Amino acid sequence: MRYVPTNCLKPGMICGKRIIGKNGQLLLNLGAVLQDSYIQKINELGYSGVYIEDQFSRDIMIDDIISDTLRANSVKAIKELHTGIAGKKIDAMEKLDTINVLVDEILSAVISNKGLNVNLMDLKIFDDYTYYHSVNVGVLAVLVGTAMNMNRQVLHALGVSAMMHDIGKVFIPKEILNKPGRLSVDEFEMMKSHSERGFNYLSERYAFSDTTLDAILDHHERNDGSGYPNGKAGNEISRFGRIIAIADVFDALTSDRPYRPAMSPSEAIEFIMAGADTSFDMHVLQAFLERISPYSPGTTVKLSNNSTGIVLKNHRGSSLRPMIRVIRENGQEITPYDIDLTHDRNTLGITIIGTEDI
Q: How far apart are the C-alpha atoms of 67 and 82, rounded to whole Å?
């Protein structure tokens, strides 16, 4: 199967993976043939793309980092936590037990994934941005933590901290959170207060660890001291805060927002790398790049020799040079063949120059 952006979907394409609705219900099953009405519904749900099967990709198998059920349950728990606090209807600790169990399941899924990163595209769905973002950041942070050789107990604390990093947004007016255009100066100052508001709310009412509280407070601090709320720099920023900062920016950049379309993973990684050692901790960034590939399996890419191919597999430590199935040359369909940009000597001069929507 291969990943096709929503704007490139056409009637007659065949679903390569199940498509799940907003509340976890099955929308389209594996093998379903897309119709105009299905494509419209996929757009309405906020999917940035789906997997399809065609003659080029039937044997390409893609595994999710976490299952549809685990993702839906995690989002449900975060949503209930946020909405319950906003409505003053629940005690935050009531949901923490559920979140702890879900983070443990996420840990098991991530640790069992021995590859570079089986599939990031499975994280980019649905329109409840804040809640899906929290889960995505949790998964990404844990991936980075595994590259930093953290033990399971520390990874669990990191996952909980990352999933709760935006809890302060429950105190920000929805018209600011969801504003489609640029925020005014006053609105931006209000938005910037969410990390401190989340820290204050939890620290005043509950016995969360300093590690989690510092992560929530620090996730918008930057390595050169240019972040907020306290202008911390370097090692003044908590370790979890430095990890969540990168995960937060990556997921935000690769998500569709009301004021801009999503970047591709490769574009987002390039943006983050431009902030190496100024915005982001270099050691954490290196761990991020070890686990996060710019070109997930199933991504269609353009090559420097004017060929088009589908990414088959990533190599750990060489994420810019994956295995690729070439399906077009000079814009014309060909009999597909596979190349390995890392190990095939005759491909040493070929590079990926970007993704391609087909």
A: 23
